Amino acid sequence: MTWLGEQLGRIADDMPERDLGARAIEIHQRRRRNFTALAAVVVVVVTVLAATVGVRALPAEPRAAARPSSPPEQSTIKVGVVPTVESVPVFVALTKGYFKQEGLTVEPTIITGAAAAVHQVEIGALDLAQTDYAMVFKVNEMGKEFKIVSGLYQAAQGSFAVAVNAKSKIRTASDLKRKRIAVPNLTGLGPLALTAVLKRAGLTLRDVVLVEKPYPDMVSALHSGQFDAALLAEPFVTVGRETKHTRIVEDAMTQEFANLYTAGMTATDKWIRGNPRTLAAFQRALAKAQRLIASDPQQVRDALPRYTRISRAMAAGVALGSYPAKLDLTELQRVADLARAYKLLERPADFGSAVVKGG
């Protein structure tokens, strides 16, 4: 029996015959309306649930990098930099406003080299400074408390070279015996690399006379005959070549020095402990600049004319290495091993005291 038949039978006793069909149809229509309404509610509920699940399933928007709730302990810091290709990330971060975004005002101060910066950092004249890693290992061996806080540069072929006056009779490294050679500082990575060049020629540092000279002054001093050779760094290798004032005798970044990590940033352990938020802010801004350079190397060539004495045309021909945003302890070990092999260090470097956590 159909549902409609059951309804007719159930109400037959209570209704006159003529009303049976009308009442059954009315009941049927009422139930259809109720069912339709219920179905509509179910559709709405299912739709809302589906939309909710769909929203939850969508990938979340990337969150902005977390910032500390408190500002840096120092809003203004003095940072020592050598005017070579190595220090470009500092100037890119300045130009792009990355330090400002971190609540820092960075005042760059030109220094001649890593060794010259040690005293200035130690007495607080500089808060941080560009260094070479061998220098940090050396001063810590002498009882200082310096730490490498971030990387800056990894050299490439042509980044450093022994050069002479274009008219010089010196042709090979073996011709450097008893010659005066300009270096930025008398200790550190520069003399270390020069030691390797001389050793391959059968010479030692005792066979030459080292003279301190800032990188920006070396090409003109070579040209005027103030000394016989110089250890140049880019962009001054390119300056000497393009002005035809110098000639390259030997590339210093070859063999065991190939692709060496040559520069980073350092600070004293005391300053680091007193300014953890300041250091973290500096590290974030510097790393951001290094990542930008990695994706767009033209940033380096655009920045060089702003703080060195070279034209944009010369900057286009500069040999560039890379700017790693993270320290590689394996590469730092290479530097430490070379420093021991060439007698700059007397003992193995203590990485636990020389490298800041998270650098």
TrEMBL record:
UniProt cross-references to InterPro entries, sorted A to Z: SsuA/THI5 (IPR015168)
Entry keyword annotation includes Membrane: yes
Keyword terms of this UniProt record: Membrane, Signal, Transmembrane, Transmembrane helix
A Pfam family reported for this protein in Swiss-Prot or TrEMBL: NMT1
Protein name: ABC transporter substrate-binding protein
Organism in which the protein naturally occurs: Nonomuraea marmarensis
Membrane-spanning ranges: 35-58
Main location: periplasm
Similarity comment text for this entry: Belongs to the bacterial solute-binding protein SsuA/TauA family.
Limits of the SsuA/THI5-like domain: 87-299
Taxonomic superkingdom: Bacteria
UniProt subcellular location: Periplasm
